[in-house]
Amino acid sequence: MGAGVSTLATPALPADWRDFLALTKPRVMTLVVFTAICGLLVAPVHLPFALAFTAILTIALAAGASGALNMWWEADLDAKMKRTAKRPLPGGRMERQAALHFGVGLGSFAVLTMGLALNWLAAAILAFSIFFYAVVYTIWLKPRTPQNIVIGGAAGAFPPLIGWVAATGQVSMLPVILFLLIFFWTPPHFWALALFMEADYEAAGIPMLPNVAGEVATRRQIVLYTIPMAVCALIPPVIGMAGALYAGIAVVLTSAFFLLSVRVWRRVPRADRGLFKYSIIYLFALFAALVVDKFV
């Protein structure tokens, strides 16, 4: 469903600040901001607090802009899914154009501020991340292919890379590894969700892997994508970019992730929910371990 003539009802209630905040997907933004902070902290250049704060703020605003543009485009789809039906647009609390203007304005401000305050390479990657999520993933991939989350996973993998580049002005090996780590983490994370939300995606007509290829193929793919994710998680200490503390934590956390993915593959009851919840903890803990390892 595109952004043409909407089937949504005319908004009955005026939008307030909470609706605009909801457009930014604050729960998703938490992980974005955290990984961006970690990317900035492990960089070899230490920014003054004001510049570091500006860098993280612009990344957060860009993530919020991406979320707003996603909700603008998918308003009709959101209305069909229980998980999203109460969002500001399908809930009838906001005009669709308001979400579009909010997203474009917020994204433009974030990119310009990043460029003027930090550097234009970071700003360019930030702009591309917004474009990738809003256009490549939301408009092009998501409604067309069950591999949407595989390619689209790149959108959520940019924050640590942008944090590093904001501090250093250049791309290096470690942030690329962190990018790939999140890239390969995304399919198991979202396909675990898709397994227990299959009916919702079916109702909205979104071709998620369980709805198109079936549960057996999805469960197998979850295990297969966990393998390159695990490799990326363990590369930093192998190439001398992290120490023994990170190595030990990464082995424990990643082993648990792999075992949970195997439980999903073997169809253990509620294993998909368990993997989905653990995957969020996993990424937070792994990135935190990388930062602590550097300073300890």
Number of helices: 13
Content-based structural category: mainly alpha
The largest sheet, given as strand count, sense and whether it forms a barrel, is: none
- Count of discrete domains: 2
CATH homologous superfamily descriptor of the largest domain: UbiA prenyltransferase
Uncertain segments: 1-5
User: What would you report as the Rg, rounded to the nearest angstrom?
Assistant: 19 Å
Give the CATH class of the largest domain. Mainly Alpha
Quickly give the CATH architecture of the largest domain: Orthogonal Bundle
What would you say this structure looks like, in words?
By secondary structure, this protein is mainly α. The protein folds into two domains: 154 residues, Tetracycline Repressor, domain 2, CATH 1.10.357; 125 residues. Helix content is 75%, strand content 0%. It has 13 helices and no strands. α2 runs antiparallel to α3, α7 packs antiparallel against α8 and α8 packs antiparallel against α13. The chain starts with 16 loop residues before the first helix and ends with a helix. 47% of the residues are buried. The N terminus is likely disordered.
How would the blueprint of this fold be written?
Layout: H1 17-23, H2 26-41, H3 49-73, H4 75-78, H5 96-117, H6 120-141, H7 148-168, H8 173-196, H9 198-204, H10 209-212, H11 215-238, H12 244-265, H13 271-295
Helix pairs in contact: 1-3, 2-3, 2-7, 2-13, 3-5, 3-6, 3-7, 5-6, 6-7, 7-8, 8-11, 8-13, 11-12, 12-13
